[in-house]
Amino acid sequence: MGVDHVSFTVTDLDASQHFYSGVLDFLMVLDVGYGRIFMHPETGFTLSLMKHDGAHGGRFTELATGLDHLGLTAGSREDLEEWEHRFDELGVTYTPIRDMEFGYHLNFRDPDNIALELSAPNQLLLAAKQALADGRVSESDISAFVEDNNLDLPKPEDG
Question: What pLDDT was estimated at residue 90?
Answer without folding.
Answer: 97
